[in-house]
């Protein structure tokens, strides 16, 4: 049986589309990376994916998830190597910039402002940490910008479980924050 | 008080983005990569989330890996399974060989300075006339300037008073530049306060001393600590008042500097 032309073009198109997406992702998350480096990474991602496909076993039961898995591990490996070589991810430079931004912020705002902020952050952290384990994790991921579907996907929970834990956790957190507000009043 | 989930999240993120946090016990990047697969159990994932919520450096890596994971998932629209038999896999391998050769060729050409075919660029903005873009940019600048003016906090240091209830707490000394010894912290009493507590902090607002609770409105810095106070360095202090009904009231920060004689 010949490999249908349609399937070939689909795989090619998906890998092309994927390397384009990776390009956008790298540009969005690693601002300091040069255009040439992005070109190199994109080329390497494509090449490695094809090389991995060359190593594939005799039978593939789920082509889509197979390509997805190969693309994920390959891209992560490449990004890891690049980050080790060039320290793109969380470079010292980025941290220094953040520290200098913080110092500038100290010039703009009063020490009172910073102390209050520190105390609020510490209080929110303590309040979140006092939640029960699974609710705490759902709330933490929510506070870091994820929705209940993304939380469910990350932990391998059902959407219902994730939504339930998140809303119960947020209700607990709000109760703690409200109690503190009433005490301060 | 009505607390909205989104407001808590926005506030948390704005506070967190300004922090410079880096922990020492960071997980290996391989663990972060595995966290998006089934290779890690729930408890291991819990540990990762606990860590990244307090380590901005790892959070950045986690975000990038998550984005790569999402991009990979975009490759598989729909849940329809496509399986390949042995012959089809052979064909796929042939295709892979051709593609590898093609890409290697392209790579060599780039190295030799031959320009490859121009790639299709991803347009983030549709074609909008420059006139409208400049109007939009002006509006954004005006809005941001207004937000900045509204949000800039007043100088709370002036009388070292905090809280909405007016002048509840007034710190008297030390204040500004001082030269004398010993270092005695003085403040005005507040109604209904049983006891007071003094906190001394360095210029980075790191606590260096918390006094015992006292019913008096002054307290002397212990001698052994006084020796550690550096001259010509800024320090901050504040007082917490413990009220009879169990509530607390905090003063603002007062700045002082022990000048060399």
Question: What do these coordinates show?
Answer:
The complex is a heterodimer of chains A (185) and B (261). Chain A has 185 residues and is mainly alpha-helical. Chain A has helices spanning 5-29, 35-54, 63-86, 92-108, 111-129, 133-143, 148-155, 159-184. The radius of gyration of chain A is 23 Å and the shape is flat. Chain A starts with a helix and ends with a helix. With 261 residues, chain B is an alpha+beta fold. In chain B, 39% of the residues lie in helices and 17% in strands. Chain B contains seven helices and nine strands; from the N terminus they run ααααααββββββαβββ. In chain B, the strands form two sheets. In chain B, strands 2, 4, 5, 7, 8 and 9 form a six-stranded mixed beta sheet that branches. In chain B, strand 4 (193-202) and strand 5 form a beta hairpin. The longest helix of chain B is centred in the middle third of the chain and has 26 residues, at 86-111. The radius of gyration of chain B is 31 Å and the shape is elongated. The interface between A and B is large, with 91 and 88 residues.
In short:
Chain A is mostly helical.
What is the element string of chain B, with H for helices and E for strands? HHHHHHEEEEEEHEEE
Mean pLDDT across all residues of chain B, rounded? 78
Rg for CA atoms of chain B: 31 Å
Largest sheet of chain A: none
Computed over alpha carbons, the radius of gyration of chain A is: 23 Å
Shape of chain A: flat
Q: How much helical structure, as a percent, in the residues of chain B?
A: 25-40%
The tally of strands of chain B reads 9
Arithmetic mean pLDDT of chain A: 76
Helix residue percentage of chain A: over 70%
Provide the succession of SSEs of chain A.
HHHHHHHH
What low-confidence regions of chain B span 5 or more consecutive residues with pLDDT below 50?
Answer: 163-167
Low-confidence runs of chain A: none
Number of strands of chain A: 0
Largest sheet of chain B: 6 strands, mixed
